[in-house]
Amino acid sequence: MPILAALLVVILLGVAFAPQWWVHRVLRRHGVERPDFPGTGAELARHLLDQAGLTEVKVEPTEHGDHYDPDAQAVRLMPQHHEGRSVAAVAVAAHEVSHAVQHARGEAAFALRWRLARHLGWIDRVASAMLVLAPVVFIFIKIPLLFALQMAAGLLLFASEIVIHLVTLPVEFDASFSKALPVLARGRYLGASDLPAARSVLRAAAWTYVAAALATLLNVARWFRVFRF
Ligand SMILES: [Zn+2]
Known about the structure:
Structural class: mainly alpha
Number of strands: 3
Bound molecules: zinc ion
Mean pLDDT: 87
Strand order of the largest sheet: 1-3-2
Order of helices and strands: HHEEEHHHHHHH
Distance between the termini: 38 Å
Number of helices: 9
Radius of gyration: 21 Å
Strand content: under 5%
Low-confidence stretches: none
């Protein structure tokens, strides 16, 4: 039995952390500086935004992960992608610009994803609180039905979190493969020999949110955050 339990823990840790480890590895492998590239990720993002007529969208550096902020209308890139000249910098810049294009076009999937994401923090906290408090409630009030109901509510909230990620993935794949990759290939921003690497980076960029969410699921610090309501 202890062996089975240990195996289960190893599998759980693998499922939770392997995707994020893979995303980091892909971005690092293709983050090698390429002096032959004409510009940085930030310069390419600016150029692609202008080409799409999105001159009002800003390009800014950030320390909190590459993303597009629809409220601030800003494409934000990590320093290595903002200042860097690499396949990763080029592909990530094109991916985040694609989110700005989705926003500007009022694409339904993007709008839905963004509305749901606003509620993610709330759902997350309530779900975590219910799962953590369920055993405590059972110790003080020995009503098994109440405990079962609380567990069910907690699991239901987690399920809704999974739905948000299922809505996110099509938006991410659209940004990477329906928008960024064709733009990079058609505009000859990358040579044919660099396109397979760009494809890997774009795949990793699409999975970033889901990979991060899986990792936080087993993040112990998160359980303690629950109590700071
Ligand atoms: Zn994205």
